[in-house]
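Please review this one.

:::
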Amino acid sequence: MHPHVPTAEVPARNPIARSLALAVLGVALVGAAIMGAVVFGVLLGLFAVGYLVSLANAWWRMFRMRRRIAGLEQPQPPAAKRADIEGEYEVVEAAVDAAPRGPGAAA
């Protein structure tokens, strides 16, 4: 007599069942490979975008630093001379009927 073998380990004797099992396994492997490739592509895209953002940030910081250094090395133009406007003041008495002005005035 044959010893008791669990059904999962019993090889299928039907060639059609074997072919179908291999086809299902093949489809599953291809599907897994495609899903893995999609996940890999998404992660690779995220890393590439992050790298480009980091590269742009480094370039911008270097650009700002170069501008600051160039601004410090460049001699500053002399300050413009003040132009004074001279005039005379005349004090005028406030009229009683004059409308009040300013933010607190009544409209």
User: Anything to note?
Assistant: The longest helix spans residues 15-73.
